[in-house]
Amino acid sequence: MSILSLKNINYCYPLENEPVIQDVSFALEKGKVYGVIGENESGKTTLCNIMRGFIPNLYKGTLRGEVTFKDKSISEYNIGELAAHIGYSFQNPFTQISGVKDTVYEEIAYGMENLGIPRDKMTQRVDELIVLFQLEKLKDQNPFELSGGQKQLVALASVVALDPEIIILDEPTSQLDPKSTEDIFQIVEYLKKAGKTIFLVEHKVDLLAEYCDEIFLLYDGRLVMQGKTAEVLSDESILQYRVQLPQVTLFYLKLVGKKGKVPLTVAETFKALKGSGE
Ligand SMILES: Nc1ncnc2c1ncn2[C@@H]1O[C@H](COP(=O)(O)OP(=O)(O)OP(=O)(O)O)[C@@H](O)[C@H]1O
After folding, report:
1. Tag placement on the chain: N or C end, fewer CB within 10 Å?
2. What is the dihedral of CA 141, 142, 145, 147, to 10 degrees?
3. What pTM did the predictor assign?
C-alpha cells in the first residue's frame, strides 16, 4: 500500500526559468527502504523538500503536480503537523540543531516537548535513542560543541524521536567515519523492521546495495531509473548518469561478465564465484 506518492511533479525555483524537477512520479510503500542516487545538483535535496512540504510552504517558486500522504494532498496538512508524520534529516546537520537547548539529551527531547508528549514517555524514548545512536558519552555536551559527524547523529536521533512513519535522510553519512556510517545503516535496518518507510539520499552505493529494497536514480531533475536494487545497481547503463555500481559488482562484471544473477555485495560475490568455479 502506498503511503506517499508524487504525481507528475515539476518544480522551478523563484526567478529561475529552468525546472529543477521534471515530471517525477513515484509511490512509496510502507516499510520499504528507498535509496536515492544521482550526481551533484541532480535535484535530490529539492525532491526531499517537496516531499516534506517545505516546497511550496517555505521555498516559493512554481510547483506543479500532486504530493499525496495517506490519500490526502500534503497541501491539506499544516507544515508543523507533517513533522510528526514525515521526518527529515537535513544534509547539513548544523541547520537542524535547535540552538535553544544546552545538552544533546535535551536536544533530542526538544521536538517531543513541542508535540506535548508526556514527560515519562519522553524520557524513556530519549534514553532508548541515546543507546541506539551510541550517544552515551555525549549526552551532557552542548550540541554546538560536537563535531560535524556527531551533530549528524544527534540531528538524526531528534528526527527519529518523533516516531514519524516516513523518514527522509539527505546524505546522513556525509560527515561520518566508516564505522559510524555502518552504524547509521544498522539504524536504517532497525527502523525498517519497526515498519518505517525510509527515503535515503546517499552516494555510497556499496551500502545501498545491502540495505535498500529499491533504488531511484535522478539525473538533471528527472527520475531516469527506478526499480529493485538488484536490477538497478547491476545495470551498467546507469554509469552514463554519472553514478557508480558497487565495487564488487564492477569486479564481477569484469571477471565473469553478465552471466546469471549479478552480485551486489561481498557475500553474494563470494557465493557467485564459488559457484562459477572462478
Ligand atoms: N534555493 C535555490 N534557488 C535556486 N536554485 C536552487 C536552489 N537550491 C537548489 N537550486 C538548484 O537546483 C538544482 C538541484 O539542486 P539540489 O540541491 O536539489 O541537488 P542535489 O542533487 O541535492 O545536489 P547535491 O548532491 O550537490 O546535494 C541545482 O541546479 C541547484 O543549483
Report:
1. N
2. 60
3. 0.94
* DSSP structure class, residue 59: S
Whether ligand 1 lies within 6 angstroms of the CB of 246 is answered as no
Q: Is 17 in the pocket of ligand 1 (CB under 6 A)?
A: no
Between CA 8 and CA 1 the distance in angstroms is 19
CATH ID of 2-233, from 3.40.50.300, 1.50.10.10, 3.40.190.10, 3.30.565.10: 3.40.50.300
State the amino acid at position 114 in one-letter form. N
276 has pLDDT over 80: no
CA 270 – CA 147 distance, rounded (Å): 37
Question: Atom 26 in ligand 1: which residue has the minimum CA distance?
Answer: 40
CB distance 36 to 232 below 8 Å? no
Place of cell 535553544: 100
CA of 196 to the centre of ligand 1 (A): 27
> Tens digit of pLDDT for each residue in 60-73?
899 999 999 998 99
| 254 phi and psi angles, rounded to 5 deg | -70, -40
- ipTM (interface pTM): 0.98
Sign of CA dihedral 42, 190, 175, 160: positive
All structural domains of the chain with their residue ranges = 2-233, 246-278
CA 136 remoteness from chain centre: 24
**Whole-number pLDDT of residue 274:** 83
Each residue's pLDDT tens digit, 146-164: 988 899 899 999 999 999 9
